[in-house]
Amino acid sequence: MDNGQSALIQLKAYLAQVDLPENARLPPERELCEMLGVSRGELRKALALLAAEGEVWRHVGKGTFIGAKPPEEHAIMAGVAGRSNPAEVMRARLLIEPLLAGEAARHATGEGIAEMHLCLTGARRAETWRQYENWDNRLHRAVAEAAGNLVLLSLFDALNAIRRTVVWSRLRQQPERPPADHHSFADHDRIVAAIEKRDAEAASLAMRRHLNAVRRRLAAVQALVEP
Fold first, then answer.
1. Angle (CA) 199 202 206, round 5°
2. Which pTM value belongs to this model?
3. The domain 72-225: what is its CATH number?
4. Which of 48, 148, 150, 156 maximizes the CB count within 10 A of its CB?
5. What single-letter DSSP state applies at residue 179?
6. Alpha helices by DSSP H, the chain
7. What residue spans in the chain does CATH classification 1.20.120.530 cover?
8. How far apart are CA 140 and CA 131, in angstroms?
């Protein structure tokens, strides 16, 4: 059993033992790590899995709570997404994410950089497009979190929620998993390498080039599917 699975089992056992009510806040991550005997990275992976299952939800700057995210937050994001479009989302990403990459180069911790490398490896090993997209999303959030600014992270999370709600018209060709030479692999490598070297300008530029490449490919796909 790997450490991530062990952390998930211990976390589930803790939640069953304390029997917290809906929307109760969990102890801070540092305290949970000490109680469960796991690392911060292992705990966060376990929390992310529980969040995906709707067992917990996270509010930036406030903590992690029991149960599913309150519907009013979903409604707000869905309302914005319903009036937006992929091109508008990409323009917003191009304004925010290069800045976050630059800030990550200045402020990332060793743990944050290790999380980015984990995401790079996970994306390359993905056996389906869904798995790849989960790792891709996790990498971009790891960069945002590494910037060390809760306000910027909140903006990223809001934008990301809108991005995931907007319907993206995509064409997936065979094979059913990303090819070994998928364009984003090299893009992501350059972003993380610049952050690790503490080169804010290079990190920002690498993120901008990556997002522009994504925007061009999405525009090409959209042109193919439109009548």
1. 135
2. 0.66
3. 1.20.120.530
4. 156
5. -
6. 3-18, 29-36, 40-52, 71-82, 86-107, 110-125, 129-146, 150-165, 183-196, 200-225
7. 72-225
8. 15
